[in-house]
Design goal:
Helix 1 crosses helix 12. The relative contact order is 0.14. The two termini are 19 Å apart. It is built from 13 helices and no strands. The longest helix has 46 residues. Helix content is 75%, strand content 0%. The radius of gyration is 25 Å and the shape is globular. It has a domain of 207 residues. By secondary structure, the chain is an all-alpha fold.
Length: 355
Amino acid sequence: MAPPKPGIVPLRPLMFGEIMDGSFQVIRRNAKAMLGASLLAQSLAAILTAVLTAATATSMVSVEAWASSTSDADLAALGLGFAAAVLLVAVLTLFIASVLQGAMVVPVARSILNRPTSFKQMWSLARPRVGALVRLAALLMAATLLAMLVPAALAVALTATMQGMGILLLIPLFLGFVALYVWIYVKLMVAPAAVVIEELGARAGLRRSWELTRANWWRILGITLVVGIMVAIVSQIVMIPVGLLPPLVASFLSPHGGNGQDMAIAVAIGIVTAILGALAGALGYAFQTSVMALIYMDLRMRKDGLDISLLRQMETGADPDGVPGRGHVTGRPGWNPHGWNPGPGPAAGAWPDGR
């Protein structure tokens, strides 16, 4: 008999096509929760882009006149302040996106048992894990900054000491750092899902992700690359008409317009571009988050026998307003469905060799 499929995917280890199809179904069945959270994650960057575009277009002449009569120290201070503001917005965007990415795992897990999730319910179920998600985002950001600073410092040191030979050595070192970054990224990719579903802390979530992805690294990398390419292609297709707008608008609406009309058109096109970019980014973000969550559920089915627990939960109808997989500790030593602890051993219901 085929395994049951109460929701978006069958209750067994998943294939690539099932992960793709399940991700689309999650977005369709929980559009308010998934797209609403994605728009929140993308809105801050979109607003910043629109404001910068409008400010640049409307004040370029006055800025040039002001800069011509300003000292270099004032210009440097202005540049540093602008860079600090952009960095602050980027950090806030990353933290918000990390929290919302963890929250969006909830509709995916509930959709496996065909349980719809509203935006309010998603946030209610994910709210207790916000602190752990923020700490996880802080750890990942610190690791990312370290991964950027170490190669930069090494490049400066090699260039200063070895000059031409140091520049030649930078190429293999750069490729090595990129490969190391990708390897670690894949190993830690399902940490937000582990933090939310298994109610783990930030560091425990990282360790859990490292454990779950063991022996599945190449498979996860392949899925991630395919999804990233798909999202990039769709985003470029959506933005192609926007790139054709400036010459068309300038030709047909204001062929003899002055600087004022050109400036207004540039502002309007910048705002439209930011809005369309946010919409395309929200759809891609929702799809990528759904794929990440289904990869996590698939890994737990392979290693922990989570599909058996979900099947029992579906048959009994237990915890209809909760998160499927939360509270099930099938992958931990000593767990037993009968409630007694026989000591360390293989997880009940786990697939052989984690496959």
